[in-house]
Prior knowledge:
Blueprint: H1 3-42, H2 51-58, H3 62-68, H4 71-94, H5 102-119, H6 121-127, H7 140-162, H8 173-190, H9 198-219, H10 230-244
Amino acid sequence: MSITAKRSEESRSASGHEARWEQHNLERQTRILEAAVAMLEESPAGAEIPVQQIATRAGLAKSVVYRQFDGREDLDCRVRAYLVDEFSRTLDAQLDISTGSVEEILVRTIRAVADWMTDHPRLNEFARTGPIAVGADIDAVSGLKVRMSDRARELISSIATLIDVDDSAFDAVPFAVVTMVEGTLTQWVGDPEPTRDRSEIVADLARLAWFVLDGAARSAGVTVDPTAELSAVIAQLSGQAACRA
Length: 245
């Protein structure tokens, strides 16, 4: 074997070893994060869970936790990031515009938020206690609101492009709707004697969100039936735009 070939083989071996070690660390981090989330769910409001208990739940030594994370603050941030990522995937699935009417998409997305806040109060509380990265200046929930606003803005922009409509009328809509939904549900969840049940508050918020979207759409010269399949509406409006071109 030539020196060049030998070095190439050694390089591949080292690269493979690094990849396996990185995967090993990733698996350990996931175990730790999952353990922390499980213990949060079981803990009383405001309780801080000792790192040792998290390590034990994950089946690891406490020293392993500190090798995977740069201290308690980093661990807490990563737990919040894990929660936000998991919840974002849930919301992305509900925002799938390929199936359902605008009304159905709004209801199922807002219901997912209401379900998470109601069924996981301890996780919701913890997500508000700090950022998803050490040194970040907004808490995890605020960051999630920005992320979902950006996602909604991307969807609206893509639809506007397909139907050849200026999307500037919708600039403020995503954040306004996301903020309204989150703020209203936070107040509702915190009310010890709410006057509306979960289905009613979801329906109310979906209706209000539609009013905002409909107003922006009409100002852009577009009228949409909120009960019609959105993919069919987009196809129809896109065809009309092609005829105008």
